[in-house]
Amino acid sequence: MSYVNPGSSYTRDSRYITTRITADGRDGFPVEPGRYRLVVSRACPWASRAVIVRRLLGLESALPMAVAGPTHDERSWTFDLDPDGRDPVLGIERLQEAYLARDPGYDRGVTVPAIVDVPTGKVVTNDFARITIDMSLEWKAHHREGAPDLYPPALRREIDAVNETIYKDVNNGVYRAGFAGSQEAYATAYTSLFARLDQLSERLSTSRYLVGDAITEADIRLFTTLVRFDAVYHGHFKCNRQKLSEMPILWAYARDLFQTPGFGDTVDFDHIKRHYYLVHQDINPSGVVPVGPDLSGWLDAHDRASLGGRPFGTGTPPGPVAPEEAVPQL
């Protein structure tokens, strides 16, 4: 499976299934606790957004989760972490089966996160950007008591604008660098990435969070790239002007979030490293997975509380992680 097209820039296939699960069911899929299954991989930054939002909002029982293994082949993600290699609820070995149940001629990416309708076994949506917004808005009746408002009405325009730049230059920017097929394409992506990180660092020098004085959707979207930066993007994707740990403001910001319930307790660095270094064989043909970096620094003091703000606004932290969803602790 090839990720790099020699001589070309990387272009992400963004043809997602955009059906929505809504409170009024206008797309034919009403919000119903227990009806759907959120399929993720802890390796994937796009899926990790959904894992974090689900936990912060307390949707674990309303929207059960299936965790695919960290590696996949050209066909799809597999449920090799489960007994007999099958998801115990959907009964399938590969996520591809749920996509083909929706559309037998499906010819696009079999991506995570995906939400599957359990009664029919069909994928409803893999529109990752919309999935987390709808968790905040459409699933509100099923939020836990004290759930934070991650997409407050007064800040939505600013959050959307920040998210757009983060996606273009950071979330997708690391991939544009890592999968660049020419020196020129790589240099363009590299320059845009670090210019944006410098701007974000300046923004965060006087504000604990990206928008407002509490965690929002924007912080979650930036965090899932930052938490992977030193482990994979710095070396594997050649984003090597500096490590995250060498950018003081962003490093302290990322540690602040990592140490906040709902963030670091969803991160599995082993899954992250195995995915990138084993799946991207055209970049890392040896299949050697690095032993480092040292992860203990994620638990160092960050001193970001001095900037004010409260992580959950007027809400409260989520409770302990359910044992069946726990990840290895640092």
Tally of individual domains: 2
The helix/strand series, from N terminus to C terminus, equals EHEHEEHHHHHHH
Give a count of the beta strands, DSSP E runs of length 2 or more.
4
Q: Which geometry do the CA atoms define?
A: globular
Helical fraction: 25-40%
Q: Assembly state here?
A: single chain
Strands ordered across the widest β-sheet: 2-1-3-4
Main beta-sheet annotation: 4 strands, mixed
CATH class of the largest domain: Mainly Alpha
Determine the N-to-C terminus distance: 33 Å
Average pLDDT value? Answer: 97
Structural class call reads mainly alpha
| Beta fraction | 5-15%
Q: Runs with pLDDT <50, length 5+?
A: none
Looking at CATH, which topology of the largest domain would you report?
Glutathione S-transferase Yfyf (Class Pi), Chain A, domain 2
Task: Count every helix, treating DSSP H or I runs of 4 or more residues as helices.
Answer: 9
Radius of gyration computed on alpha carbons = 19 Å
By CATH, the architecture of the largest domain is named Up-down Bundle
Region (Disordered): 309-330
InterPro entries: Glutathione-S-Trfase_C-like (IPR010987), Glutathione-S-Trfase_C_sf (IPR036282), Glutathione_S-Trfase (IPR040079), Glutathione_S-Trfase_N (IPR004045), GST_Omega-like_C (IPR047047), GST_Omega/GSH (IPR016639), Thioredoxin-like_sf (IPR036249)
Protein name: Glutathione S-transferase
Pfam families: GST_C_2, GST_N_2
